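Issue 218. Parser rejects a valid record. Input:
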Amino acid sequence: MLIAIDAEFVQMQQEETEYRSDGTKKVLRPARLRLARVSVLRGDGPKQGVPFIDDHIHTSEIIVDYLTEFPGIRCKPTFSLNLYLALKSSKLATSIRTPRRTP
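Output the parser choked on:
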């Protein structure tokens, strides 16, 4: 089965940097990103191009940057039956989890 995955991230906190006198850059606090939307489409077969996962991931934090001029993040998703989910309950997050292996 061939599939296409698209994920959109948003920035919750901007990077804080310091420039030293020698011209080097030191990151004091890295930017914090969060998954905002994940879409998975069928890549072959009779339903080619039809999404079977299109979830928006809910956040109660303030988004400081959508990281794109044309975000696919909207109040009302086009295809999703699961409009807003917590990250841990998204179908994709659930389907890609694997059991932890012990050495």
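Fixed in the parser; the record now loads. Residues 75-83, 94-103 have pLDDT under 50 and may be disordered.
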